Amino acid sequence: MSYKDKIDIKQLNVWFGEKHVIRGVDLKIKSNSVTAIMGPSGCGKSTLLRSINRMNDVIKVCKVTGDVFINGKNAYEDNTNVYDLRRQIGMVFQRPNPLPKSIYENVAFGPKIHKMASGKALDKIVEKSLRAAAIWDEVHDRLNDSAFDLSGGQQQRLCIARALAVDPEIILMDEPCSALDPAATAKIEQLIRVLSNDYTVIIVTHNMQQASRVSDYTVFLYLGKIIEEGATKGIFENPQHELTEQYITGEFG
Amino acid sequence: MGSPTKERIFFVALGVPVIISLLAFFWIAATLLTGVGSLNLDMLTTSALKGGAFEMIVGTVYLFAGAAAIAGPIGIFAAIYLVEYAPSGKITRIIDQAINNLAGVPSIIIGLFGYTFFSRQLGFGISLLSGWLTLSLMILPIVIRGSEEAIRIVPTSFKQAALALGATKWKSISLTTLVAAAPGVVTSLILGIARVAGETAAILFTSSVLITRGLPSSPFQPVMTLSFNMYVKIVARGESPENVFGIALILFFIVLSFSLVAIILRVYYRRKQPWLD
């Protein structure tokens, strides 16, 4: 089995109780790329994202069938260590969610619980992550301040740093800029392009302009099914499917 | 009738109960302060055998400290379980109702239960231990409900962030939710202590006696307490209330300071919880 595809989703179906939210999705994600998942509200974008790092497991009424292969290994196998899986896959949420701790402790949280480092080695990881998230310059002299002292955009970059600190291979972003102002959004979009050099990034977005700015590949999801997917340029310039074209031209939200 | 007038009426009407409560509080304090004459600092350290209140103060402290040490951990873990782990359903609702009922049980009945079960059935007799166990039943619902509320208002986004980093469910709760809820949990424990520090009925026949020789040397011995002392002096000995105002004042200050500490803690930590804004 070749795994130059970082992620290989096969026949994924997700139900929330009776509601069939993801319907038979097949999707391959390439390494070191940025893939945008877009579609109208409620079509299952977040659910699809959360199926990759099994965050849907915490929802009691959620049922999943199908496979999600990551580096060739099925995340939904019985003997999967879901905690290690989630360490390998970073997640950034729609609204910044810093932990009720200092800036330093936020970033150090992941490495600490996985016993990855301590002392000076941990300090190095924290600095490296904050630099990688393009926020080191703004916080290096106040690492012990509460994370809540930061602005929204800074908090979100802190959350990115926090996700990077555990050395993931994949980063999932669920509409990471929707709660931010344009300036902060621009900073993060810039960051995403840089991150794709070292990580595989999947970003859910409502914002088509953002998808075309930031991603290499785009997936159009509608009512839980993939309607069209491919290189971003192609999708936007030459959509094959009627629904895709309607969505792109704004005929429905 | 215009709106501004209505607003004014409501303002005044709602302010009246506040004024009444404050007046009641100050009246009690003032009455007790007439007893400040019979109170001097020596009383706090002199043995009761010589007219002081030392053993009573220590006994009261021993009692509520032990009860808190029992009810605190049990209550906190019960609250965590009820909020984070219990499946929603009939059994959980019954448990919730049972806890509410426990809070409403008159203290004399709790005392009776304590006497029957701890003192007689389990053979602990009139002792600190019986008192601890009995009083913990009164602290427990206060701690459970207060902790539940403190845990519930913590945003779930903290837990989600921890889970997404690969934390186990317990770690995501203990390292984020509980840390954020800690001030509320501690406050509820302090309020529980304030509730039982002056408790009389529950310790009436489970743990307190009028006179002991020195401090208890083991949990199986009884204690002297401030509240029991006042009760006996007035009811059993028919002394006039003024005689015990000194003791009452001590007890009043103990309970008051616990309540004040709870308020101060709440105000102090509120600033450190910006997610509540």
Any chance you could write out the topology, listing elements then pairs?
The complex is a heterodimer of chains A (253) and B (277).
Chain A: E1 5-16, E2 19-30, E3 34-38, H1 45-52, E4 62-70, E5 73-74, H2 82-88, E6 89-92, H3 103-113, H4 119-132, H5 136-139, H6 152-164, E7 170-174, H7 182-195, E8 200-205, H8 208-214, E9 217-222, E10 225-231, H9 232-237, H10 242-248
Parallel strand pairs in A: 3-8, 3-9, 6-7, 7-8
Antiparallel strand pairs in A: 1-2, 1-4, 4-5, 9-10
Chain B: H1 3-33, H2 41-45, H3 54-85, H4 90-104, H5 107-121, H6 128-152, H7 156-164, H8 169-197, H9 201-204, H10 226-236, H11 245-270
The total beta strand count of chain B reads 0
CATH architectural arrangement of the largest domain in chain B: Orthogonal Bundle
Largest interface: A-B, 27 and 22 residues
Alpha-carbon distance between the two ends of chain B: 36 Å
Please tell me the total number of domains of chain B: 2
Oligomeric assembly: heterodimer
- Principal-axes geometry of chain B comes out as globular
Tell me what portion of residues of chain A adopts beta-strand conformation. Answer: 25-35%
CATH fold type of chain A: Rossmann fold
Just give the CATH class of the largest domain in chain B: Mainly Alpha
What percentage of residues of chain B falls in helices of 4 or more residues? over 70%
The CATH class designation of chain A is Alpha Beta
Tally of individual domains of chain A: 1
**Distance between the terminal alpha carbons of chain A, to the nearest Å?**
39 Å
Helix content of chain A: 25-40%
Task: Estimate the global geometry of chain A from the Cα principal axes.
Answer: globular
